[in-house]
């Protein structure tokens, strides 16, 4: 009995559960920080994208197309290897959170732009005609309506963001994927390592995905 | 109260307003009629700068709103607008719709804004709907809320852009009745409408717009009895039969 899923390999994995738990903790923490970064970038750039100001619109277009059309791995490697040259030394945790945040910021910017554009034009006109400034109208009238439309796709973004934090494994990020990988490359018990890891990602993502589906049904999107 | 001087508007190559000169006196009720696409909306929307004219000057309550640094948000607080599609805020209750801008823009204390808001809702016959959402109301009711929302800004001028055109026929009268009762007060009203019965009842003056120009103007009787221009006659015969 020495297949990839042999019983003694599972036993070893369970005995070393702390290693997986550590990875899980890091993945959850990085995901939360990255999501916060992505939301900040996404809201600002998404609003830029709906602006009548040509420069702001251009910033949105360039950001979204560059980030969406290059691999996440390259972006993270770029940060990881370039920042030290600029004299900026950051822990891998931070590099991972920033890298994934920047990446998903571009997708969230598109979600935000789409949500804002789905609010009928008359809403902005009514607000402006009452003496609201553009920014006030956004804050009180447009965004609250847009958020309802944005929630399901944002939840989907959170799911793929969690999965994409696994890119940190490539820069020794201490995340779930990295922990599983280094544990199993040491003892070669890949079978249980990847199954357990996959299950843990599933555990994080499936409830969120379910939630998104429920939101979609409710808003009738 | 409102003065337009040589106002032109272009959308790209499309020349939509062709040199409009128009003065609306304080307290005047002006009705604008004209075929679809003639520039009525563009004209009335230029009066609160929802559309910025390409050329010309617009003076509202003594302030040149087309000037570079004009205090436009201040002016808009005293120029309310009622839209064809109502444009109520769907995520807010009826009372919140009526009080939001007074509280946030004019900085009226909440309690005061709610009291006056309730009074205006009562006036348009919708006090009992104060805590409903717009989607729970009929079109006629929504438009009456929109009028209450406009009134709660205590405006000097109210602009109406085809306020009854999106309504089912049986709801037009309830909205017109509210507008007639408003007209009996001192407020300045500019109304784009094809409701000639309304024009006859309240208008001090009617202007007929076609192709981005004011073709003809006069008191409502003039348009019923002896309009001068062929185009005016044709238009009127189409809307009144
Ligand atoms: N934002 C816009 N961009 C381009 N063309 C427009 C725009 N708004 C209005 N127009 C055009 O300007 C003309 C006048 O429109 P409008 O003022 O809405 O007329 P009316 O209210 O009399 O029906 C129409 O030909 C319309 O298609
Ligand atoms: Mg129109």
From TrEMBL, chain A:
It comes from Fonticella tunisiensis. It comes from the Bacteria. One of its GO terms (molecular function) is transmembrane transporter activity. This is Amino acid ABC transporter membrane protein 1 (PAAT family). Residues 24-212 form the ABC transmembrane type-1 domain. GO terms for cellular component: ATP-binding cassette (ABC) transporter complex. Signal peptide: none annotated. Coiled coil: none annotated. NCBIfam families: HEQRo_perm_3TM. InterPro entries: AA_ABC_transptr_permease_3TM, ArtM/GltK/GlnP/TcyL/YhdX-like, MetI-like, MetI-like_sf. The chain crosses the membrane at residues 28-50, 62-80, 86-106, 189-209. Belongs to the binding-protein-dependent transport system permease family. HisMQ subfamily. SUPFAM superfamilies: MetI-like. Its main location: membrane. It is a multi-pass membrane protein.
TrEMBL record, chain B:
InterPro entries: AAA+_ATPase, ABC_ATPase_HisP-typ, ABC_transporter-like_ATP-bd, ABC_transporter-like_CS, MetN_ABC_transporter-like, P-loop_NTPase. PROSITE patterns: ABC_TRANSPORTER_1 (PS00211), ABC_TRANSPORTER_2 (PS50893). Keywords: ATP-binding, Nucleotide-binding, Transport. GO terms for molecular function: ABC-type amino acid transporter activity; ATP binding; ATP hydrolysis activity. It comes from the Bacteria. Residues 2-236 form the ABC transporter domain. SUPFAM superfamilies: P-loop containing nucleoside triphosphate hydrolases (SSF52540). Belongs to the ABC transporter superfamily. This is Amino acid ABC transporter ATP-binding protein (PAAT family). It comes from Fonticella tunisiensis.
